[in-house]
Amino acid sequence: MAHELSDVTSQHATAGMSGVFCHVDTSDAEEQAALLRGWNQVYSQMSPGTFSGAISEAQFGNTLLFIESTSNALLQSGAVDANFLAVGVPLEMAGAAVFCGAEDSRSAVHVFSGSSGFEFFSPSGLVMAGLVVSWDSLHSMLSDQEWELLCSGMDDAHLMQAHDQRVTSLRAFVCGVFKMLEHSPQLLGNAPLRLALENAVLSNLAELLIDESKLPPPRIAPSSRWKIVAAAREVVRERADSPISVAEICLATGVSRRTLQYCFQDVLGLSPAEFLRAVRLNTVRRTLRSATSVTMAAASCGFWHFGRFAGDYQRMFGELPSETFRRRQTRLSSACMR
Q1: Residue 59 has pLDDT above 70, yes or no
Q2: Helix, strand, coil in percent for the chain, rounding step 5
Q3: pTM given for the model
Q4: I need a labelling partner for 280 at 20 to 30 A (CA). Which of 163, 242, 249, 307 fits?
Q5: What is the pLDDT of residues 17-48, one digit of tens each?
Q6: Contact between 178 and 171 (Cβ < 8 Å)
């Protein structure tokens, strides 16, 4: 099975240049444990029956995303390098589960780093999404206050109860990325898209892991709120040719996520994420004039969940992006025939 993974990875590595995308099906728990590179995992099957599992994996820069399915109950143990943070989000989980001695559930998030590793008694029929990022990359996206808040709760492997909406959003993001890469693995061959995807992963993780309610409340004079929003809009305008995340806007403007949220809601009645989505949708609409495909246009503007993107696009413009694309391609063909 190790040889099979090597073959699959090499094919996708060629297609994706500096990015790797692969999918492997397995019939043995020990073989599956060896598939995730750098995890030093050991799996022992705990429930009877023939084992079947699968791993889809995308690796780019210092970031690894995966979705893993396992048919039987397992006793898992493993660790990642201390320079990396690993986060697990259950996609499907029913039955008793225990993570590092704590009762687990589908709503809980697994967080760990370093050689102390983790132990996980996983139930049958588990589907788990995983994200691994470097601490340095995550640090570069956070303010000093956010970084201190994040690190204060990361001493040992643990379960975290995050806001339901944020967990749901992260699940949708990861599943959306894999659906797009399954359809268009060549996207990882585009260096700007790889960087944008890595930044999107970091921004989504920061959104999940940091509880802004523990930060001091923002105190901003009304006259300053518009200036902060204007500065943020200027940053977005300057980066019109590539997707930008809320975290990057915060770094560029020197304000916290909570402050940016407060100012946007007060001035525009929108969250920063809603504002960015509207800007990106308009950018996609313009991009479709010259794009080679709707998928490429969506990814180039930072949309990694195609189904959600298509729905948002239709609500904004009254038609699907594929309809816009076909109409403009038809017009282009007609113009060339004249």
Answers
A1: yes
A2: 50, 20, 30
A3: 0.85
A4: 163
A5: 468 999 999 999 999 999 887 788 999 999 99
A6: no
